[in-house]
């Protein structure tokens, strides 16, 4: 799909879409023992919910994602939603057949209740008074939206990375409400290495003098710290092969070294660009809360083992991993598959050949489309 010619009028596009807002006036009990409420979830829908209300698919976004998964908000938008290649007429999640929904998570900064929102108890932004949240809390908030829309059961839940964690949480926390589960490039718990990368990102933010213990709203933002956090994280989304192919040791603007500390290698300037772009759209405190939620996620912790945790699941599973994903490697996907098969569940597993690292779930859409179409039938 060439983005320079693709627009909302394309027959494969869902067209112009609008973000909607679900408001819950009560409180949501959190796994930490605290309460959050009232709360808002920003969400978007595509396609039509059928009369039986059994064709709804929930797409769950990754750390820095949002509810805008497909289509365009205005005719002038440069790019469509973040997974537009997968959602639309005739695509993997075919909007002529399915009612597709994506909601921004609680703790986020794209319309749902998070640290930058006003705390009703004080009239000021929550900042670090926002309660610690978990993947389970995110799913419980989505369940409130599901009930408000009178959707009895998801035909499928799916997502990549942290979205896959949420999909697994759905399949075990609400097994009777999930028919198909498609966890992609994900894990049932983070490794020490992944937790370490998250810790470095949080340290970069909290070391920024403008962070001000989280109370930076209305003042100078901790953009340097957040940009560094994004730069570190972005490296983990790529692979050594893809970085070598794209950048090698190329210099960006010169034929010889500058003999100073300014960014000069192409990979340096690329990472700086990624950091600079990220701070324009994301909240630093949300980054802290969401990465901590990922760190806490451990599907087998309460049940004792992953196998025990998956014993309650009722869905059919399609698990996908990628050969060059070293952040959530195939070994972790195989561990999940073993637990599912031990419990006699219907599970398909595919390791997709890709040089793109963890980001492959956003890029390898042709192979994924064939697999998902066949799985969903």
Q: Hey, roughly how much beta strand do the residues contain? A: 15-25%
Number of domains: 2
Going by CATH, what is the homologous superfamily of the largest domain?
Alpha/Beta hydrolase fold, catalytic domain
CATH secondary-structure class of the largest domain: Alpha Beta
CATH architecture level-2 label of the largest domain: 3-Layer(aba) Sandwich
Q: Report mean pLDDT, rounded to a whole number.
A: 97
In spatial order, strands of the major sheet run 1-4-8-5-11-12-13-14
Counting copies of identical and different chains, the oligomeric state is single chain
Low-confidence stretches: none
Concise summary:
The protein is α/β, with parallel strands linked by helices. The chain has helices at residues 135-148, 162-173, 192-207, 223-237, 240-246, 266-278, 284-296, 306-310, 330-342, 360-363, 365-376, and strands at 20-24, 28-29, 35-36, 39-46, 56-60, 87-88, 93-94, 99-103, 118-119, 124-125, 156-160, 180-184, 316-322, 347-352. The model has no long low-confidence stretch (mean pLDDT 97).
């Amino acid at each position: 799909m060439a983005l320079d010619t693709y627009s909302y009028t394309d027959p494969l596009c869902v067209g112009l879409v609008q973000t909607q807002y679900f408001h819950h006036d009560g409180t949501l009990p959190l796994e930490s023992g605290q309460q959050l409420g009232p709360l808002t979830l920003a969400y978007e829908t595509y396609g039509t919910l059928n009369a039986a209300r059994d064709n709804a698919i929930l797409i769950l976004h990754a750390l820095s994602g949002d509810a805008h998964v497909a289509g365009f908000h205005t005719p002038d938008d440069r790019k469509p939603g973040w997974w537009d290649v997968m959602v639309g007429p005739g695509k993997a999640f075919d909007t002529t057949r399915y009612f597709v929904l994506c909601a921004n998570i609680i703790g986020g900064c794209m319309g749902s209740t998070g640290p930058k929102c006003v705390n009703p108890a004080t009239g000021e932004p929550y900042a670090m008074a926002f309660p610690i949240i978990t993947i389970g809390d995110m799913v419980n908030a989505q369940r409130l939206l599901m009930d408000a829309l009178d959707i009895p059961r998801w035909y499928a839940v799916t997502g990549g990375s942290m979205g896959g964690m949420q999909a697994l949480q759905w399949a075990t926390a609400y097994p009777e409400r999930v028919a198909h589960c498609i966890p992609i490039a994900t894990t049932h718990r983070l490794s020490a290495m992944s937790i370490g990368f998250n810790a470095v990102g949080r340290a970069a933010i909290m070391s920024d003098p403008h962070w001000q213990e989280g109370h930076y709203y209305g003042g100078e933002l901790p953009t340097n710290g957040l940009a560094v956090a994004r730069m570190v994280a972005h490296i983990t989304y790529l692979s050594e092969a893809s970085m070598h192919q794209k950048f090698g040791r190329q210099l960006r603007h010169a034929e010889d070294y500058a003999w100073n500390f300014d960014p000069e290698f192409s990979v340096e300037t690329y990472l700086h660009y990624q950091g600079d772009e990220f701070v324009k759209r994301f909240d630093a405190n949300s980054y802290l809360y969401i990465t901590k939620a990922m760190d806490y996620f451990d599907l087998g912790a309460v049940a004792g083992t992953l196998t025990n945790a998956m014993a309650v699941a009722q869905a059919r599973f399609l698990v996908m991993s990628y050969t060059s994903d070293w952040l959530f490697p195939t070994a972790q996907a195989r561990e999940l598959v073993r637990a599912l098969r031990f419990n006699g569940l219907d599970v398909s597993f595919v390791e997709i050949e890709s040089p793109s690292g963890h980001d492959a779930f956003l890029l390898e859409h042709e192979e994924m489309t064939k697999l998902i179409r066949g799985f969903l039938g």
